[in-house]
Amino acid sequence: MFFQPRTDHIGLDISDHSFKAVQLKKGLRGSLKLVGVGNINIAEGTFNDGDLKQPDSFIKAVNDLIAKPTWGKFTSNLIVACLPESKTFIKMIDIPVLTNAEVEQAVKWEAEHHIPLPFEETYWDWQKIELAPNIIPNRQPVILAVSPKNIVDSYSQALSRAHLTCVAMEIEAQAIVRSLIPTNSRGEKNATIIIDIGADHTSLIMFSLNTIQFTVSLPISGNLITKTIAQTLNLEETLAEEAKIKYGLDSQVHHGAIYKILQDMITDLIHRLRESLTFYSEHFPHNPPVGEILLCGGAANCKSIDKLIQAELKIPVKLGNPWSNITPSPNQLSAAESLSYTTAIGLALRGLI
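RE: above sequence
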């Protein structure tokens, strides 16, 4: 989105409290290898819900991350960065079947009815989706991606001041799909829901007919889970984080103590998931049913969250594999660690698959 990248870049996942970076390279036989990987916490107040408030703090953190990766060595100054989910918009819309010269104006007109921002204050991009004619008769489906200009410009300027070149920016959902959905299975009949449970926010991505249909923000996050446990049990947050991962939502452990603490939050999450499934079935009647749910993000490691969602929704749920398009999978990160790098891996894969 917005710029065309080269392939020797670093994927940079930007969130309010941390940066994560991944660089890949293509070998002589086309196989992908991990070059470098790292993460860094950033100073409190650097961001406020995706808005960059302290550029100097951003610059210091990203330079420290590039200079001192967790593993390997970053060898590029080119960046493909993600845009904050809370500030961006991606959705499939449909327009009349038109000539190429007429499509852009039709997309703009249709988009103005969907996005909650003045159109002149946004950057936007679109792409035609090729579907069988009987799926949406006499209509052309288009995937639309929109982001506020002030967000894009502030990130780009900060990266430039850090002596890094931003060659592309993507909406987070696009990178997550690229990481988790194998390229050889994207034409499968069933739809897939991806739930990205990050430290700061959780988002649902509905992927069907080889494209993102819509995204939804959900009322849960890794940090919120940890803070709720810490406050209820009067624990330090480090101990609460350990309890979240070790005991999680297992109702059989310690009489389900953690589950009971989080029950209202989980009930709300399940309610929102059901709403999203209903919205999908009512507004996308020609699309296939949901066949599976994939979990990613660091908080997807919360014990038994996959089993609980599956039991409630009666849809198979499993942890996603962020290395699904890389064979063999790199062994420098554990499966649990890899989940928190899902977005960064997807950004690093741009232009390579």
